[in-house]
Amino acid sequence: GQRGFPETRLDHEHQTAQRPSYRQNKKTQDKDTWIKVKFGEGRYAPELRFNPIVSFGSIILVAAFVVWCIIDPIGAGGNFTAAKTWITDKFTWLYIGSQDVWAVVVILIYFSKYGKIKLGKDSDEPEYNNVSWFTMLFACGVGVGLFFYGVAEPVYHYTGGNRYSADRYSPDNTLAQQAINLTFYHWGIHGWVVYVIVGMLLGFVSFRKGMPMTMKSCFYPLIGDKIYSWPGDMIDILSVITTLFGVCTSLGLGVIQVNAGMNYIWESIEKKTENEVILIWCITALATVSVVTGLGNGIRRISEICFAVGMFVMLAVFFLGDPWFLLNLFTQSLGYYFQWIVQLGTHSDAFEMGEPSYGGAGDSGRRREFEDTTSDGPANWMDGWTIFYWGWWISWSPFVGTFIAKISKGRTIRQFINGALTAPVLYSFLWMVIFGGTGIQMERQSAGVGLCCASWNPNLLDGTLNVTLSTVEKSYEGHWDMACPQVKTGNGEETVSNCNACSEGILKLLLNDENINETAVYINRNTTITDNFQNFHDYLKSTRGRFGRVSHDLRQSRLS
User: Which residues contact 351 (CB under 8 A, 6 or more apart)?
Assistant: First the structure.
């Protein structure tokens, strides 16, 4: 058509597709204004080539954003948080639905005749072997995210509030499996598909149609030669800005984790902003070196090293843990994922974000320990998890899509989808099962020995504290027996405490002279015993049943 791509002439005798020349076909001629700056003489001297409108426009917007955040960090943070919440409230349906559409489109292309089309001439061969190719696209796509969320996300879904844990009668095993399932959803087909869509389009229009490898080229079938005017420049500027936000998110999460890890090993290294800024500079310097040394040497080699280190850590956790449990969990979780993928992929927390169920059927007989807690799922869960993830994945798609298109020349579309979707999804699942499954297993073991308050007795504690408040200052003697009465075992010879491990730990802490002042600091910075009990009692109420997610001394939260 008028705005369609010019047809590629196919030489049936030699079965080779010839890319049309820019000069022969003006529709695919690069009409952008480029500035070239060469550093030095000779064939291998580095050269800088950029579009001044896109480059300077992006620099101005990025600088304005940075200045705003420096001058008014609290206001900027508040505005972005409010904007994100508004987007979640109004456009969750669009985020959820569009990811489903992309997934269906990619699957249809994979099984269609178009899967045989090469990203390049029919005679082109891949530039990189399969191992190097996979490590580069994988390290570019999700490197930091897997390390940061590998344990944290499954454990958080297991111990935190969501639409599944809101049902207090759900078996613990079911909650654990739902936690893995939610994690699979965020790191599975629906996440990787945005990289595939962008990379596949860019690879096709660039290597097959001879167009510049920028995001605006993807819009040529829609707006034609206007991609070479201000609409195209706006598309590219927007791509740069979204990439900035994606990099900020990943780099921010990464340096927080690295700083915390270094502090854990060396206590002299504090967890503070100054150290995180230093880490950002160091990581940026390494990234710059890898880019300057070229795709074939710098980026390729550092990707291979990172992937190898990640494999070592993953296999170490696998073999040093419980490999048979993890293999069972991987097999089981794959089945759950494909069984529930349609429901997960379309669930938008409509009722959770709507009006709460004030005493409706959802609350019938399902109250928790305190009267003000309902069985509704958290209204802000979608904003903090799924919409955050889709925004993060999509913001990375211009950069990652361009990169994986760049390194995929000579591969068919079907091979490209296998490498950029099928293999990474399966690897991500394996990673999340090994780290997340091990984390959940440790949580359950910790709760079993009283390190985490998964089975505490709030009613006993609540009644005990009410009684103890009036008598605790008189004497410590006898209070422990009153709090956790001694009961005889079956043979009548041995007495044991009537408290479970967590309740016992809390009461021992509150009734222990040595810990009173220290405990009070954690509760409300009061040091008198009566105030200590009263504050703890009030705190117990205010947590609305969530206190069971920390250790009995209030210091250690769940392992994530």
Answer: 357, 376
